[in-house]
Every structure is written in structure tokens, then in C-alpha cells.
Design goal:
The protein is α/β, with parallel strands linked by helices. It has 16 helices and eleven strands. It starts with a strand and ends with a helix. Keywords: Membrane, Transmembrane, Transmembrane helix.
Length: 415
Amino acid sequence: MKVIALKNIILEKNTITYKFDIPEELRKHINMEYIDEHNQGTLFVRPQKETKLEGIPKSILSIPFIGTMMGIAMLYQIPIKVDEVDADYLKSTQELGLVFNKMYPQGNLKLKVISDRVIENKKNSVGTNKTSVFFTGGVDATSALVETINLKPLLINIVGGDIALSNQKAHSRLEEYFNKVKNNIPGVDYCFVESNCRELFKEYSFDEKFKKFIERELWWGYWASVAHIVVMTAVIAPVIYSKNINCHYIGSSHSSLDSAFDANNEEIINAINYCGCKFISADVDLDRNEKVKKIVDYSSKTNKYFELQVCWNKQEGMNCCKCEKCYRTMMNILSAHGDPNKFGFRYDTKKMKEIRTFLETTPIKLSYWETTQHMFVKEKDYWKDTELSWFIDFKFNRPKAYAYKIIKRVISKFK
């Protein structure tokens, strides 16, 4: 029987290295730099901030491997085999298989984990109430932090997840920001976990295979639509166990009322459990505008401002302030009567005109922008005599926007 088999777990200082065998048909999806001379794959997880790896049970250490392999194992219907697994996590994999099949019924996905030993792991939580938050600095994560701020959570971020391992400048910039947050909010600390959990795979090589059966409003690629949360929650297992965390929050990507969603949704998060730690999807009933308003209101009351990290095209770790997501977030902040300049953006009258031109010449996702426009409409009298009054009755996706899109495409072909 074909299996994705974990052969060895090596602990060295603060690094956990996983050596595994993978069938030939799947090996083509692994980046060659992570295939050794014995044709074995190599996954590594490197927790920081003095995470003690000694004494962590093998059944917990196997979780990062299982979570990383979950997507490709489901797609090819090939079981994952380990020597030991946490009992709660084994049950989670069964529930996750059901959720993914509910999300993508045409995929015929099958998720099976085979283990010689199933171990019950219960942390000593007597007298403790330790909380952590998956934190990237974005709107969802910052709203989740504001929601849990009285719990003084540990902020956990994956280096190699949303930011490439090689992008040290962006990582250094993010760590500087995390230090600011830590110094601004007493009791809050952070922990980075470095891993090749994402870069292990050539995502593009099976993107199309997944895309064929994902009939959703949004398709963001394998990472966002399938792997993101199951991998991230698995990779942090050694930190969760070592630091005795019993509650981990993840900011929701979409409101529960939104028809669009990705793999960061409440059903998936609720299905995840190991060694007594509960995973919670924060702010599931809030849309992006409501989350931003919560952040703006908190900052206005406390005079503690967050430099929101939202851009996919960061320049030296800073928001570019000229992409759709930056424009949209600035409008979110403005709708909450906030100043984008205090939240990590560069905004002035010229930028406002730039946003208007963008909307006039670019087709956009209506579900993203109409909710923001509705916030302006609700306060029509407040905005009617301002430089943003145009946004109240602006018509999105007019023929002009599509015409410009076609022109841009034609021009790009001749460059």
C-alpha cells in the first residue's frame, strides 16, 4: 500500500527535522532542495523564544508532519503513516476530512492517518489560562488580538508561511513591529516558528488539480483555499504543548454571513484539537469593516495604534499603499472615522484621488467594496460635504473599468 511515511524525527537544539518517504507520483511536487541523497523528503520546524523541545512526546511532534502533508494526502487519496499520534489530533483528522468533503464535494477527497500508537496527551492546565493568537499584523489577526487583549496572549507567527523564508528584510521589519506591539501592550509577548512547511511543495504543480473541483466565488490557490490553517495550526503544536497553551485564537477571514470563504473558516478551526488545546475562530460574525472599526475604536480610546500589515506587495516590509488591498483597507479605516496614516498607510488628498481613479478603471470584487460603501451611505449626512462624498453613490464595475482592463492586457502583450 502506498503511504506518505514519517521515518524519523530529529531534535537538534531548537530545530525539529522530519525525514519522510513519499510515493514517486507525489515526489514531483516536492522542491528538490528538500529531497536528500536517499530520496527522502525533509521538513523542518524551528520554534523560537526559548521553546523547550525536550520532553515533548513523539505523538505531539508528529503533528506538524501530518498537518503539512494533509492537503496532498487528501488529493491523491494516499494515507499518512506515523509511529505515534495524539488521540485528539487523530480524531481531528477524521473530522477535517468530513469538513473538506463538505466544502469541496466534487474532489472525492480522502484523508486517512495510520499510526501504530495512539496516545492520550493532557497538559497540566490547573491554575493556568494561557492563550495564544495566530498573528500576522493583518486586519483579521489584529481584530482577534483586540478581542483577547485582556488575556495577555502569546502572538504566534509562522516564518515561511505568508512571508518567504528568504525574505529576511520583511521578517526583520515584522519582528520590529511585533516588538512595538509587545512594548505597547503589557503582558503580551510573541513567538516566531520558522518552517519550510509551505516552501516544501511546488504549489503550482497541483494548483490546477485542486482548482478543477473548487467551485467557489474565491479561489486563492492551494495555500489559502486548502492548506493554510491546517498547516499553521499543526506547525505550532510543539509551542502549544511546551508553553501549556489551552486556547488558541485565529482571526476569521470572512463573516459567517458571507457566501465567500477560504480554508480559514469556522468549521475547519472547530474541527482542530490536540492535547487539550481549544482552537477558536475569532470574530466570525464581523465583516472586515466591523473588524477595522473595532481596531480604530480601541486605538482611539487607548492611544495605542496598530500598523496594519495587509499588503501582498510589501516594499521593505511596508504596505505599498497602491494595491487593491491597501486601497480597500484605507477606505475601511476612513469609514470608521480613523486616520490611515496612524495605521501603517500613507494617505492624503492625492491618494484619495488615486483610489477613485483605481475604482473607475479596475473591476473589483463587489462583496469586498459594497459593504464599505454601505458604511458611508449609513452616514450620508456626515460625508456629503467632504472630499469622500463621491464614494456614497459610486457605481462599481462600470463598462469603463472593463475596457481599461482589456486595454491593459493588450498593452502587456506587446511589452
